Amino acid sequence: MSNFVDYVKIHCKSGHGGAGSAHLRREKYIPKGGPDGGDGGRGGHVIMRGNAHEWTLLPLRYTRHIKAERGHNGQKNQLTGAYGEDVYIDVPMGTIARNEEGEIVGEILEDGQEIILMEGGKGGKGNEHFKSSTNQTPRFAQPGMDGQEGFVTFELKLLADVGLVGFPNAGKSTLLSSVSAARPKIADYAFTTLKPNLGIVEWRNYKSFVMADIPGIIEGAAEGKGLGHRFLRHIERNSILLFLIPADSEDHFQEFKILENELKEYNPELLDKDFLLSVSKADLLDDELKREIAAEFPENRQPLFFSGVTGEGLQELKDAIWKKLHG
């Protein structure tokens, strides 16, 4: 998925409330009609809305300011002013909004879900509200209240069924391109994947699941080295994890333990997720080498061997993922 954007900061402003009316009724046959000023309408809200057709924050990338309409003023004959038009910010599922203090204002998890980020100002009361026995013709009304404004940061954490976890060049991009229509950048140097990629993987009987290729972890990612926290956070939103250890690794089990430790350092709860172990680039191995590599792992952590280049073991891998997801 090209042009992935997972972090956007926008200045938002809700609408001011409309002013109440201080109108006094003046009709030919009603010389002392009294106050009949209506209330002002509330200002427009700024609302974040989930949209299943959006996969990235790219549509918001060049948006600097979002402003809702102010409420309309009250009118005579006790007519309330119209509400200011609300502004909707459509975002993908998995989007979090934070205020200027870094606090989470809301999180979108469902299509059509709406969260008010900034409420419009309330409309002012018209003079009809201030009529009393001692003041039967009040000539004043309330002004509308100001709306809210400030910067909102939108942050997307990928929602996927399975997240690929591995060092740079573990073969994650090759796997994704082999089992889906996604076309991530593939090359033999570190950090080819600088942004997450999503692919829809077809299983059997037209069923499918979503796979996320997440940029490679290096030792120290939990402390912000390499691509750091920015991409570790995407792993939080995956249902299961698939660890990829390349066949040409010097120590397969040790590489798995390093990856596992990085996730633990970042967020220990990640280790509560179901996961699968796999060895990529299996086209480089014969049966004897596969047995030797499998022997490095405990009985309950046996890896699946596959090759994204030749297709070896891909169906078995997809079957294992499906069983984990729906077993």
Description of the structure:
This protein is of the alpha/beta class and 327 residues long. The protein has five helices and 16 strands. It has a six-stranded mixed sheet, sandwiched between helices. A five-stranded mixed sheet has the order 5-1-10-7-8, with no helix packed on it. It has a three-stranded mixed sheet with strand order 6-4-9, with no helix packed on it. β14 (238-246), α3 (252-266) and β15 form a beta-alpha-beta unit. The two termini are 29 Å apart.
Please write out the topology.
Elements: E1 7-13, E2 24-27, E3 30-35, E4 46-50, E5 65-67, E6 87-91, E7 95-98, E8 104-107, E9 114-118, E10 149-156, E11 160-165, H1 172-179, E12 197-202, E13 208-213, H2 229-235, E14 238-246, H3 252-266, E15 274-280, H4 287-295, E16 304-305, H5 314-326
Parallel strand pairs: 1-5, 4-6, 11-13, 11-14, 14-15, 15-16
Antiparallel strand pairs: 1-10, 2-3, 4-9, 7-8, 7-10, 12-13
Family: Belongs to the TRAFAC class OBG-HflX-like GTPase superfamily. OBG GTPase family.
EC number: 3.6.5.-
Binding site for GTP: 166-173, 191-195, 213-216, 280-283, 307-309
